[in-house]
Write a structure and sequence with these properties.
Distance between the termini: 42 Å
Oligomer: single chain
Number of strands: 30
Number of helices: 7
Radius of gyration: 23 Å
Largest sheet: 7 strands, mixed
Helix content: 10-25%
Shape: globular
Low-confidence stretches: 1-27
Length: 502
């Protein structure tokens, strides 16, 4: 849960984003079912509020193949390095033993993981709005109708875009896993049988966000294995912040939820302190949330044409890796195709570099791009088949050695009500890096006027419109700041600019 001052997770408008092509081709070769362990873990403001070593121990003890992290605050790559995960995606706050294809640049806040060559599952990492927490409202006497209105406004509205985005993927048969910190309870827990079991449980309630997920055909993995909410309430928030510190009237509930579709749920355990229902115990427990790890049997499915840059930004002279999947082949190989390196937005046929894919013998899924001869800036890699048809495109950044994060306004003066366009450069590329507008010279990092997330961009434009700013601005002097991954820590600031009345 962790109460933060940012009331809404506003998605930044990144100029040039494309819509996701979500169609999945028929699987040309059936995959063998395999067991995969997936963990969701809100590590609590970076993971070191109690002990980073215990946070690492908790993830290690779960032995998950995929970990969806909430509140890592820029530490995703550190976790991967310490724990030995081969793949880390800060844009999705995800660790994995399988290759990750982040789909953010294609218009989707989710990722594919390649379980075996050419066979995939889709995953979405969820962290919904924490404000006006429903179990507190029930505890404090709000009616079911009042709670449902608030939940629909704040959390159902947050989960629906994920369900809509993932529906064609799930409908085509691909395994889809969706989970994280819902900041909301489950309708499978608030039943007639559980009324009175905890002091906030005064009536049954069909909590809209969780209900929408199960209504869309997903299994609640904990409840699939532990169907009785009286016998196994499965509390995840909170047994303490940290344990054993707890408010006397705390409304304990299960708000860290892991769902799966097109999967068989084999097991589900809570990872936490020595409390009821905890299957994997770590003491002292390092977070205000307990974690969930579920074992699933998955049969990977074919994905669309995919291309991602790993990493998405390097210092000039370092190597960019491009990971690809070609649709319609048994293992994702692209025979007799090639990659063209282009200026960002450039058209194919005028490549700065050309890199050929495999022939009919080798399957090459990872191709290297040299950057020593590329000027600092934004570039596209275009994937083409043997006929020269473009299949997919990925963007990456080449940075000057020693380049520092920067943010600037696109103009020196704005009319009140006019959108402010923040130009971001050399950002870390974390999922919840954000840009905020401050009165000029403001010393309190919490006292900002409005904000928008960068969607993990390393460079690009972030638009702060009236929705992000809460309406037209008062005339005066302002500045922009780039802040790190949902933390109140600025890493760059702009020059002062003016907002005028007319």
């Amino acid at each position: 849960m962790t109460m933060r001052i940012k009331a809404r997770r506003l998605s930044a408008t990144l100029l040039g984003a494309t819509l996701l092509g979500a169609a999945i081709l028929a699987n040309p070769a059936a995959a063998e079912p395999q067991q995969v362990k997936v963990m969701i873990f809100n590590v609590w403001l970076g993971g070191d509020q109690v002990s980073m070593s215990k946070t690492l121990e908790a993830i290690r003890a779960a032995d998950a193949d995929i970990v969806l992290l909430q509140e890592p605050e820029g530490n995703v790559r550190y976790f991967a390095e310490q724990l030995g995960y081969a793949y880390a995606e800060p844009r999705q706050n995800m660790l994995s033993r399988f290759p990750i294809f982040d789909m953010t640049d294609s218009g989707g806040d989710f990722a594919y993981v390649e379980l075996t060559p050419g066979h995939f599952a889709a995953l979405a990492n969820i962290h919904l709005d924490w404000t006006e927490y429903g179990p507190y409202a029930a505890r404090d006497g709000k009616s079911a109708e009042e709670i449902l209105r608030t939940e629909s406004d704040l959390r159902l509205s947050g989960i629906q875009p994920y369900l809509e985005l993932l529906e064609p993927i799930a409908a085509a048969g691909m395994p889809v896993i969706l989970g994280g910190d819902f900041n909301s309870a489950s309708d499978l827990d608030w039943t007639a049988a559980t009324v009175g079991q905890r002091h906030q449980l005064k009536f049954p309630l069909a909590w809209p966000a969780a209900h929408a997920v199960t209504a869309a055909g997903y299994q609640d993995t904990w409840r699939t294995i532990h169907p009785d909410p009286v016998a196994n309430p499965g509390i995840t928030w909170s047994w303490g912040y940290p344990q054993p510190t707890l408010w006397a009237d705390e409304a304990l509930d299960r708000i860290d939820l892991l769902f799966a579709r097109n999967a068989t749920v084999d097991n589900s355990q809570i990872v936490g302190g020595a409390q009821a229902d905890v299957g994997i115990v770590v003491t002292p427990w390092p977070s205000d949330h307990q974690a969930v790890v579920s074992t699933l049997t998955l049969e990977g499915a074919a994905a669309p044409n995919l291309l991602v840059a790993v990493p998405r930004g390097v210092t000039q002279g370092e190597v960019i890796n491009l990971r690809l999947n070609a649709a319609g082949t048994s293992d994702g190989r692209l025979e007799d195709g090639w990659l063209e390196i282009l200026p960002h937005g450039g058209v194919t046929g005028a490549a700065l570099q050309t890199i050929y894919s495999n022939d009919t013998t080798d399957r090459r899924a990872l191709l290297d791009v040299a950057t020593y001869n590329l000027e600092p800036g934004s570039y596209d890699a275009a994937l083409l088949d043997k006929d020269g048809t473009e299949l997919a495109r990925a963007t990456f950044q080449v940075l000057l050695p020693g380049a520092r994060p920067a943010v600037s306004s696109d103009k020196a003066s704005y009319k009140s009500g006019e959108p402010i366009v923040a130009q971001v450069a050399n950002a870390p590329g974390n999922r919840f890096d954000w840009v905020a507008l401050f009165p000029a010279g403001e010393t309190d990092e919490w006292n900002y006027v409005g904000s928008a997330y960068t969607n993990g961009a390393i460079s690009g434009a972030v638009v702060l419109d009236q929705e992000a700013l809460g309406g037209p601005l008062e005339p005066g002097e302002y500045e922009l700041r780039l802040l790190l991954d949902d933390r109140y820590v600025a890493i760059a600031g702009s020059k002062t600019f003016t907002v005028r009345a007319e």
